[in-house]
Structures are given as C-alpha cells and as structure tokens.
User: Fold these one by one.
Assistant:
Number 1:
Amino acid sequence: MRIATLMSYTAGFKQATEEIVELEKAGLDIAFVPEAYSFDAPTAMGYLAAKTSTVTIASGIIPIYTRTPTLLAMTAAGLDDLSDGRAMLGIGAGGPQVMEGFHGVPFNAPTARLKEIIEVCRKVWKREEKLVHDGKNYQIPLQQDKGTGLGIPLKLINHPLRNDIPITIASLGQKSVELTAEAADGWLPAFYIASQAHNVWGEALARGRAKRDPNRAPLEIFSGGGVGIGEGLEHLRDMGRPQTALYVGGMGARGKNYYNDIFRMAGYEKEAAEIQDLYLSGKKQEAEAAIPKNFLDKTSLIGPEGFVRDQLAEMKESGVTSLNVGFVGSNIKERISQCEKLRNIVDNL
C-alpha cells in the first residue's frame, strides 16, 4: 500500500511544503495538493516539486470546469517534467456551489466531460499527431462557425517526459465511478466504508472494469482516514466530526448533495437526513454531534496498533490498494511520528 496525504493549505503552502518534505523522509509516497477555492494547486505543486525528491505530486483535485482539457494536459506534463516523472493528475467535477458560485461557469455533464478530458490528455501527451477532438462538450480545434474560424490543429511543442501520466478521479456517483474504473488510473472516493463499499459502488466498479483496457494497470483505490496509532487515542476520532458534518450536511442543497447520498447508501439514511436538517438550519454543532460514532470508528485509523492493523486488513480485503490519510498531532514532530508508525505497519502487513 502506498501512503498519501492531503497537503494542508490553512497555514499557507510554504509551511505545508516544509511538512511534506519531512513526511517524505518518514515514508510518505504521495502528496495530494488541494485547490477548492483557495490558492490554485499547480503553483504549489511546482514549488513542492523543487523541494522534494521521491514523493508523487498529485492535484487533489483540480475541478474540471476551471480549465480546458488541453490546459490540464499541459499542466500535468509540465509538472511531470519538473519533478522527473513524479506527477499525477487528480481531477473531479467539484460541485455547483463552487463552480457556479466562485468560477461563474455552468455545472453540467460531469461524467461526459471527464471522459473527454481523459481522451484529450492522453492524446496531448502521446504527441502522435496534431490534436483533434470532436466531442459533445469539447471540440478541438473549435468549430469554425463558433469562433473566428482561424483555429488550426496543433501538438504540444515539448516532448513530455512520460506519454501516459497517471490520472486519478474523485468520483461518487454510479456513472462517474463506472467511468473511473474503466478509464482512470486511480480513484478517490469519499466516505468509503470497507464493509459497505461493495453495496455502494460494487456494480459500478464491475461495469467499468469490464470495459477497461487490459493493457492498463489495475485501478488504484485510495481510502484511509485520520491516523493516530497508540493507546488511549480513540477520542481523537471525533476530530472528523466537523468535516463530515460540512460535507454530509452543508455541501450542496437539499436533494442535491452527493456526499449526503453516499452517506445514505452506506447505511445511514436516517442520520443523513438529520445531519442535513441541522446543518442547513444553522445548527452546526448539533449536526456534528449527530454523526454516528460507529461511522467515525469504521473510517478511522486512530487507536491501538492492533485496531489499525485490523482496519487496514479490512480495507485491503474490500479492494483498497493505497491509503489517503491525515496524521493527527499538535505539531509537525507528532505527525511525522504517526507517519513513521503507519509506514512500519503497512510494510509488515
């Protein structure tokens, strides 16, 4: 299992990069760089490439509506060159609140767009011929009647270091998960519960895998949670309450919240409705308190070493191949220690 973490942006990218540098020494394999509606991810990824030597640098995630497919391909190729082949393109649809509210672009056809973006990126990287793509959502070059009529087919000037940079997709819905299993290299699900994953996504994954190119490596599946290995740390699982409440309760409107849908499908239908009602009513603390304890237990790597080993074994049995985790600790030294402990356990599974 590879170990990945999401680089923090709350204290600034420079300080967060310093921590990734130390985590790399402790055994971290992948650093996902978030974007959301903070600073852009590629700027930090380039800085991170200059400061690290072995860790894979992944966008985690770049929302697909904020760039053209070609620019996504150019960004990944540029980072791959700077990092000597350590780039991963992490993409996803995001949500209408941010796409329409912050970027001012319509949120539509996410799965179809993802499919076309993957196709365009791989054409750009291979450079076998000038880029031509005639899709429903993207036409490259732009059709003459939609612009000046002066667009011509081009190819990337530089020769990419790799012609097949890994693409990881953050997907939740059945159609997008099916596409991920068919065409992507990695999958970043949310609210992944090992015991419920097959019920939630099993059929979609199976459909996608049935269409997957047999020459492409198996899909890398990321899951994990908070990491705190030691006795008497179980109370730290409650640190997951605010973010879970935000996503289940407030990330979207009533009836249009993908995270809430997944929470329901994972067996928490009643709780999902309650959390959403409380959160949208402004009762955030009550929404956090309504999150079931057993959900926090099932999605955590916080506890004695035996508990963590059992959790990892269950994740692996369910199909998880790599870990995406957050290390608990009040300072860098404590978080690095947790990374070292997890690395030791993973290496001896």
Number 2:
Amino acid sequence: MGKAVIIITLGISAIVTLLMINLNANTNAGLDTTLDFFKDTKARLIANSGVEIYLEKLRRDKTLSGQFNDNELMDGEYDVTISGPDSLLTIRVDAEFMKHKHSSVVTAKRTPITIPPINSAVYVSSDNLTLKLNGNMDINGNDHNMDGTPGPNPALPGIAVDDAADSAFVINELKPKISNAIQGAGGAPSVRTVEDQTDWLSITENFIFAADYNLGSGTYTTGTVLGTVSDPKITYVNGNVEFAGTAYGYGIMVINGNVSMSGNFTFKGIIIAYGQSTIVTKTVGNAGIIGSAIFVGQNVDIQATGNASFYYSSQAIQNAKDNLKSSRFEILSWWE
C-alpha cells in the first residue's frame, strides 16, 4: 500500500513537472512570437515612414533622385532609392529593425501645374480701383514672343476688369497719350470686362505650395535671377517688395503685398500681386512684364511712370506650363 502511494505520488509529480515544462515552453514560444511580430511591425512602420519623409523631400526638392542610405529612424534604419521621371516616380525603402526587415515600394506621379486661361495683358480685380498712369507706359494685349517679336495667337485686351463700371472708370481716367498706349483686342484703348472670372486667390494657394523660391520683404536688385527660360521657377514673396537694376525672372511670381519695379527689371511669365487691403503697384524706368500681370485686392492702385511695359505673351505662359513642376503627387501604387 505504501509503495503504491509512493508510485502514485511520483507519477503525479512527474505529470505536474511535465505540464510545467510544456507551459513554460509555450510561454516562451508565445513571447518569441509576440516579439517577432513587434519587430516586424516596427520595421514596416519605419519603411512606410521613410516613404512619407522622402515624398515631403521631393515636394521641396523637385530634382531629388538617387540613393540615400543609412537613415536613422525609431531606433532602426532605412535606405531609399528614388528613380524614374516625374510622370512615374519609383520610391523604394528598405528598412531594418533589430535584424527584421521590410520593404515598401511606391510609384507616384507629380501632378502638373494648373494655369487657368489668361484673359489680358493686365487683369485687375478690385472693389476700389485707382490709376495713376504717366510717362510712356505700354500695355499691350497683342501676342508677343518672349523676345518682344509678334506672337502667333489672337490678341487679348490690354486691360481686363470685373465689371462695366471699372471698365468705364479706367477709360475715363486715361490721358490721351496713355489711352493710345493700351493696345490689344478691339483697338485702343483696349479695356474690356471679363465674363468668366477666375478665383485667383484660390489659384495662388497652389502656386505658393509649389514655390521654388520664398522671398521676404525687401529690395532685390542686379544679380537677382528668379528662373531662366529653360528652367522657370515659382517664386513666392510674402510682403512688400521692390525689384530694381537688371534683375530678372521666368515662370510665376506670387506677391502677397505691394510691388515696385524699376530700372531694367523684367519678368517673363505671370506675376500675381494680391492682398486683403490696398495693393500698390509701381513701375518706373524700363521695367516690364512679358506674359501677364494680375492684381487682386479690395483696393488696387496702379502707378506707372517712365517706359514701363506690360505685354501679353502666350509663349512665356506656355513656357511656364511646360516646365514648372508642382509639389503635389498622385500615388499610383503602394506595395509592401
């Protein structure tokens, strides 16, 4: 009887020991599985975050391409490869966290810059328009090439405004000499009312988001280059600005404030000056815009002296459309 009890006791002890061993083994296996899942998830998070980080870099640097290795993030690291044209970019990120690896491959395309139809050499949208036009200023809605020679497209108005009252005001305020210098569709003075009005304030938000250059208030003179004919740029100026000397630019310029142009400053493309209150535009000397100039504000005051010129140019505008890059992307695929 005693031996039986001992045998039973030993048997139960052995069973309990076996159960404990199995339980500990299962616990360790479960812990390993949990840790592996955590490490896999962390590597995946690093890879996907790397994609987002480099999409933002691509937004800011529109020429970014190639390999970028050994980026550290969340106690792991990742390598990035960017290849392909803007119409089909491939962004590959290979991430590693505690020897666990994950790859994410994204294809995307850079969305094009949208430029609404241009309606004139100079467009003014304002609740209170004032003009101080003197000298030999020249506003011309006939199409011009960027070198000043005649362009191929039909003429647009020299000046376009939002309503008939503004149109009548402009015509009545023009001196005879200036009146003859407003050329374009319909003959001098070429001043017309716009039927289909564009919300330029909304349009400027997209341009600002995609800006290549961001400038503050101040004077920018000889030596300032804001884009070239083969590489036009989007420039955003936040504040009042003066361009002087032989500074020049190509593309689109958005100015949140007053603008003064003097000397031989020239811009070939589109200039948009806007503000919540009064926008004062001054042109002095031989300054000029070849493309289109757009002024939007509650009050717009245009002051011009000297030989200032505003020429409509379909070529300058098309050059901006063809060569400017947006900062927005459309994701075509995301593979992990």
Number 3:
Amino acid sequence: MAESLTLLDPKKLHRNPDNPRLIFRQDELNALADSIAKQGILVPLTVYRDHGKFYLLDGERRWRCAIKIGHKSVPVIIQPKPDKLQNIMMMFAIHNARKDWDPLPTALKLQDLGNIFLKSRKRKPTEQELADLASMPRGEIRRLRKLLALPKQYRTMLMQELEKPKQEQELTVDHVLEATKGVEALRKRGIIDVRQEEKLRHAVIQKFRKKVIKNTVAPRLLSKIARAVQREELSLKEARVISAKLVDDPNYSIDQAYHDSAEQVEMSHTLTQLLDRVTKALKNYQDKGVKPNEELLKAIVKLKKALNEF
C-alpha cells in the first residue's frame, strides 16, 4: 500500500534507472518549468525507497524542472519498492497513459523487458506476452521490434535527431522504417543485392533529410516497382537502372522513379483487375435474372461511353 503524501527535497531524489524515457527536450522542459514556477507542482511525483534513497516512478520532467527553478521541496507519494520486472512494467503502464515517449528509447527498454522475461521464464516472450507486460497493442510491439532490428548506425542517428527540438528534426522513426521496408522489397525480388540495399536505404534517408522526398510513405512505391517486376510487367534491367539512379542522383525522388518505371503498368494492372470484377459482377447479375434499376442502367451507359472514348 502507498504511503501518505509527503514533501521531499528534489535534490534527494534520483531518476529511475529503468525509465524508458531518455529524451527530454529543452523547449518542452522550459514550458513546463514556467508553468510550475507560476502554479507549483499540481500532480505529486511518485517514488520508491531503496537503501535510504528515493527513486522516481513517475514525474521525472516535473522533478527536473523543480531542481532547475530552485524548489526546496516537491510533493511525492512513496510506493513500495518494485522488483525490476515490476518497475519496467510500471514505466510502460505510465507510457500507455501518457503517450509521450519517443519510440526508439521505448524499444530499447522493451528489449530489457524481454531479457528479464527470458531470464525468469527460461524462454523468450511471445508478442502477446510482451504486449501484456508493456500495456501496449501488439501492433505497437511489432513496430518497436522493427526498430530494434535496425543497424546500430540508424538507431544512433535517430537518437541524435530525438535530442533536437521537434521543429528542427529532419528524420523520424517512420522515415527510417518506411525506407527500410521499401528497399527490402527490391532486394527480395532480386533487383538489388544486400550491399546495394544499404546504399539505397542511406540514399532514401538522405533524400528525406533534404526534402527531396516529402511524403513519409513514398518508399512504398518501391514495393510497387518490385511487384511489377514479379509480375513480369517491368523488366529486371529497367528496375535496376531506376534503383541505381535513386542512389546516384541526390535530386531524383521516389515519385519520379515510380513514374519512370512502374506507374503505367501498375495503373494498367489495377484497371484490368477492376474491369474483370465489373465483368464478373455483370455476368452474375444477368445469370440471376435480376432486372437492372435506373441507377444501374445509368452507370452502365456511363461505362460504355468511357470505354468508347478509351
């Protein structure tokens, strides 16, 4: 059971060693410090005691601001000391309520959570078990695991971006994940090899930085190029030329690459599928002897006119 509310010197508090939140942007801290200076700390911090020291469970931003503006005491609620697994689970539960942690630091702590589970249960946790422990949807767990699979250089790059004020950030986690998925699709179809995959991923990320690519999901067009090759609607040679140009030309966008390669065949493929479905639906309609209503007849006339003009 939690102890009653009390006041403690913020300088005697310590950050939680298992807090997944590693990034504290200065502009956000400044705004919170201004609010605390005017109104005080309205929500008490939550701490636990361990060997005579107090460690934060919730309220690290408020604690940092209190020290900055020179508060001599802060309101705290003292909780029983959790074990390591409980500690991390509590941190994730707080995250689930606040939704203000950055994905990469959260992913790194999720890895710790998985390692603790492995050590105690002698097996790796399932996706669902991790979701339950972290109080997160399975889809978010899957996304965080993809982040952990990124090469170290990209995780380092993203951490450096996260330390900047949001308005100055050029890259996000989604930029890197979308670039990774897009170039991976080309590699899986044999359009590029592993070495070329890394070069292309780096090139796409740089194009995001320089705003040559402005749409976060633009790399999904690379998957469409890969599918066009798979269906033999686009030659392997053409796709390789386009992929090389994306690496070699810093101003060549993915939209341009798609337009120069798979856009026409992709539109033709999509239209063919739609017309096939319409034809089958009309045949099914006729076979059942259903009399078309006025709305359907108008639509058929409109379609005939479009086909005649094609």
